[in-house]
Amino acid sequence: MDYQSILDTIESEIEKRPVSGVVASYIPELAKVDPTKFGMNLFCINSGHYSFGASDQRFSIQSISKVFSLTMAMNLLGDELFERVDVEPSGDPFNSLVQLEYEQGIPRNPFINAGALIVADVLVSKLKNPKEEFLNFVKKITDSPSINVNYTVYESERKNSYRNASLLNLMKSFGNVYNDIDTILDFYTFQCSVEMSCKELSQAFMIYANGGKKLADQTKILSPERVKRVNAIMQTCGFYDEAGEFSFRVGLPGKSGVGGGITSVHPGQYTVSVWSPPLNPKGNSELGMYALERLTTLTGFSIF
Ligand code: DON
Q1: Common-topology check for domains 3-62+197-299 and 65-192
Q2: For the segment 98-155, what is each residue's pLDDT rounded down to a tens digit?
Q3: What contacts 74, CB < 8 A, 6 or more positions away?
Q4: Which atom of ligand 1 lies nearest, measured to the CA of 62?
Q5: pTM of the model
Q6: Residue 165 exposed, middle or buried by CB count within 10 Å (0-12, 13-18, 19+)
Q7: Superfamily of the domain at 3-62+197-299
């Protein structure tokens, strides 16, 4: 497959495409990002990296971090985790509170904010230094020791965490939150404020395309059974109330973040990451989704 010429085609299509989405502003610092930035990187299991645009520039990974925290929590807690968070698509916005009320504080899945906050609670309980260990895990699977948190973005979200605090309070009232709310919020905001480039995200996600092992040295990070589960949850829940649309248009598991990033996985084949800050009304990168739809259309190849 000539991935580079397919990416070149996508680049020329992207340049001409009008955008109606807007950059996230409920985290004020994210609103300062240049909306015209675009980067794409594809990491093929057999033939390495292909890219264009700002594919080496780091940006705020936001909810993409939920895939890493879920991986760590599954390894620490096993199936017990799924007694506290379900694996059903929510069909509601990522920060919605409504289902929690009638579902007794059990979030629908680990990728909506409510579910990711339960995963954060698990990591706070199980790890001695959750922030440091989370960052070390991301550095390890990426082979990139300079990955770090943007503390300006972190402060900016932390001062505006009203909705996430509500989710935690509501779940605590049902007995599904064990630690202090500020401690969990602090850790969760930290994980969301990690910055990575498209190339680094493709590198990190290779464990989900390569049966749970790093590609470079085949170090085992998680079992093939857990890889299946993480990919399944990405497929059904990775894009909140747009998960069906993403499956329909792209046909790959993936995860988005309000920083404008999306990373997708074709198990056994490649990982692919895109970054374009303007978001559609569901909070997913508008051009990023388009680029991935073009990728699976032009290659004639998806998991379906
Ligand atoms: O908790 C939040 O609202 C953000 N830190 C992350 C949300 C997010 O990225 C949703 N994704 N599309």
Answers
A1: yes
A2: 999 999 999 999 999 999 999 999 999 999 999 999 999 999 999 999 999 999 999 9
A3: 81, 222, 226, 229, 230
A4: 9
A5: 0.98
A6: middle
A7: DD-peptidase/beta-lactamase superfamily (3.40.710.10)
ipTM > 0.95, yes or no:
yes
Could you identify the residue written with the tokens 């059904």? 236
Residue in the block written with tokens 């594809």: 42
d(CA 23, CA 206): 28
C-beta of residue 45 within 8 angstroms of C-beta of residue 12: no
**Is residue 264 very low, low, confident or very high in pLDDT (cuts 50, 70, 90)?**
very high
Ligand 1 atom with minimal separation from the 163 CA? 3
Q: Could you tell me the CATH superfamily of domain 65-192?
A: DD-peptidase/beta-lactamase superfamily (3.40.710.10)
Whose CA is closest to atom 4 on ligand 1? 62
What distance in angstroms lies between residue 66's CA and the mean position of ligand 1's atoms?
Answer: 9
